[in-house]
Amino acid sequence: MIQRYLGNKSLLADTIVDLVKGIASPGDLIFDAFSGSLAVSTALRSAGFEVAPNDINHFSWLFAKAYFSAGELPDPPGLTPMSPAVSWAYWQEELERLTEEDVSDVPTRYRRTDIFDHYCEEGQKSGFVSKRGTSGRRKFFSAANACAIDRALSRIRFRYETGLITEQGRCILTAALISAVEKVSNTQGTYHDFPRGFVDSRALKPISLRMPDPAVFSGPPSRYIGKAQDSLEFAKFLPRHRVIYLDPPYNFRQYTSYYFMLNLLSCYADIADLDGYFSNIQYVRGQNMKDDFKSTFCNRDKFIPSLRTLIERSDADYVILSYFDGPNHWGNFKSESAETEGKKLLEQFFHSDLFVEGSYNFVPVERRNYQSYGGYSGKPIQEFLFVARKGKPAENVDDLGSAQWIGQGSALGTV
């Protein structure tokens, strides 16, 4: 799973699961409306709940499709049923073959060098000019790692297009690739930019693909997995669920920009015209802006109306919402206004007519943010969990009319 993710709730997952256990039973459907890195969905599934994850980031769908589609690790394609241990070993061998330098197993037309060309300093198409007029070359990856990523993507695309692997198989292989890429990326946590004056030491290590523990595949299969959808839309089609868990963006950051690289790797096998796609990348980071999504939750004035719309559309019994006092619509990191104003607005919201009177519960949790690294401790932050029973049935309310794909149509696609 992805670890270097803004707002990652790995350290809070057990507390959220305990809250869910108090209002739901194993087997109940739980809607994770901003699933992101799947930290909460994974913990809920391990506790016996069926999860319905959705996130605007394509890679969130890919990881969920890889790990949540069935109740156990699937057998490698074309092989008879085998024990989980033997199956895991076969999948691991498949992963190791993905980056092999000899690409004679891949037809010439499937051999691509898109990552090397556009996202490492030695690539012929990695040059950029910023809005301020500065120029340079992208350096998200070392040349060796960029070439290895290209070989893996070429093999996955070839095997998937020709039916040698299933959709879940494609997702399993790509999820392992993305997990490995995260560990060797020259970034400070997101892909909105890269260090200009130095190279992160992690980016100098050779990429290594590893299968996750077989336990990741265990749990109730997910029947409903959103594919890069706006949760305001996905909620309208999801059947009744016991809990909707909400961890929306609380500031201006568009996550499809911050994690465009992971989304690109995730949807690579689906992009019909790769030449056309890469001819339209923009900005210093090199993103195709057809894949960028502008969320109403990233707008201060539209945040509360969007929150109400999502909950009204959700056919849920209970609502759990995470909020923390980091940089957000109401203040800077650890500022008094970030904690008091935002918290006050949400308290008022959870006492509105949308919820059953007297059902409101508030749980404060202290933790450190995800940025702890290299001997430095992450900043302490205060996390707040709001819980209440929904009092109104689901409604098909009108669209807000402002959430939109930035481009004329996403290359990621939705299902």
How far is it from the N-terminal to the C-terminal residue, by CA?
22 Å
Strand element count: 12
Order of helices and strands: HEHEHHHEEHHHEHHHEEEHEHEEE
Regions with little confidence, pLDDT below 50 for 5+ residues: 371-376, 397-411
- % residues in beta strands: 5-15%
The outline comes out as globular
Radius of gyration: 21 Å
In DSSP terms (H or I, runs of 4 or more residues), the helix count works out at 13
Q: Roughly what percent helix? A: 25-40%
> How would you write the strand order of the largest sheet?
2-1-5-9-11-10
Give a quick account of the main beta sheet: strands, pairing sense, barrel closure: 6 strands, mixed
Q: Which structural class is indicated by helix and strand composition? A: alpha/beta
Brief overview:
The protein is of the alpha/beta class and 415 residues long. The protein has 13 helices and twelve strands.
Protein traits:
single chain; 415 residues; alpha/beta; 6-stranded mixed beta sheet; two-stranded antiparallel sheet; 33% helix; globular
Give a verbal description of the structure.
There is one protein chain. This protein is of the alpha/beta class and 415 residues long. It has 13 helices and twelve strands. It has helices at residues 13-21, 39-46, 58-68, 84-98, 114-119, 143-161, 167-183, 231-234, 255-258, 260-267, 274-278, 300-313, 336-350; strands spanning 29-32, 50-53, 127-129, 135-137, 241-246, 281-282, 287-288, 293-294, 316-324, 361-368, 380-389, 404-405. The strands form four sheets. Strands 2-1-5-9-11-10 form a six-stranded mixed β-sheet. Strand 1, helix 2 and strand 2 form a beta-alpha-beta unit. Helix 3 (58-68) packs across helix 7 (167-183) and helix 6 runs antiparallel to helix 7. The radius of gyration is 21 Å and the shape is globular. The two termini are 22 Å apart. Mean pLDDT is 89; it is low at 371-376 and 397-411.
